[in-house]
Amino acid sequence: MATKKKAAAAKKPAAKKKPAAAKKAAPAKKLTTKDAIKAANKTLMGLLAAGDTAGIAKLYTAKAMLLPQGVPGMKGAKNIAGYWAGAVAQGVAGGALKTAEVDELGSTAIESGTYQLKTADGTVCGAGKYVVVWKKEGGAWKLHRDIFNSDT
C-alpha cells in the first residue's frame, strides 16, 4: 500500500510557479552626485574614443569654459568641440578619468581627479590632474568649468 501512495504522489503534476511579473520590482536606485558625475565622465571618454567632439560639447553647460594648460581658455560649444577635435586630430583616441572627490553644493558640484589620455593603440599620450565645476542643467550634471594640466 505504501508503494501505491508513493507512485500516486510521483504522478501528481508539479505546482505551478507564479509568473515573474507577479514579483515586485525593486525601486530604481537614485544615483549619488558622485556616481552621476562618474557616469558622465565615462560618457565623455566614450565620445572621445568615437571621435564625437560635437557630442562631447553637449556634455558642457551653455556658458561653459574649457581651461586647458598652455592655451587660452575657450567658451561655447563650438570652441569646446574645436578643442577636442584638435586633440583627436593629434591622435587622442580615449582615456580614463579617475575621480578623487566630489563636493556637492546644491546645483553645483566640484570634482577633482586625475586623467590619462591614450592613442588608438593604447599608448599613454597624456596624464595629469583636473578640477571640474559641474552645474545641474536640464536635470543633468554638466561640465561648467573644466581645467586640467599635465604632469609632464
Description:
The chain is an alpha+beta fold and 152 residues long. It has one domain (33-150): Nuclear Transport Factor 2, Chain: A (Roll). Helices cover 30% and strands 39% of the residues. It has helices spanning 2-11, 33-50, 53-57, 77-89, and strands spanning 60-68, 74-75, 94-105, 108-118, 124-137, 140-150. The chain has a six-stranded mixed sheet with strand order 2-1-6-5-4-3, covered by helices on one side. Strand 3 (94-105) and strand 4 form a beta hairpin. The longest helix has 18 residues, at 33-50.
How are the SSEs placed, and which strands pair?
Elements: H1 2-11, H2 33-50, H3 53-57, E1 60-68, E2 74-75, H4 77-89, E3 94-105, E4 108-118, E5 124-137, E6 140-150
Parallel strand pairs: 1-6
Antiparallel strand pairs: 1-2, 3-4, 4-5, 5-6
Features:
Nuclear Transport Factor 2, Chain: A, six-stranded mixed β-sheet, single chain, 152 residues
Strands side by side in the biggest sheet: 2-1-6-5-4-3
The computed structural class is: alpha+beta
Proportion of residues in extended strands: 35-45%
Low-pLDDT stretches: none
Shape label: globular
Summarize it:
The protein is of the alpha+beta class and 152 residues long. Helix content is 30%, strand content 39%. It has helices at residues 2-11, 33-50, 53-57, 77-89, and strands at 60-68, 74-75, 94-105, 108-118, 124-137, 140-150.
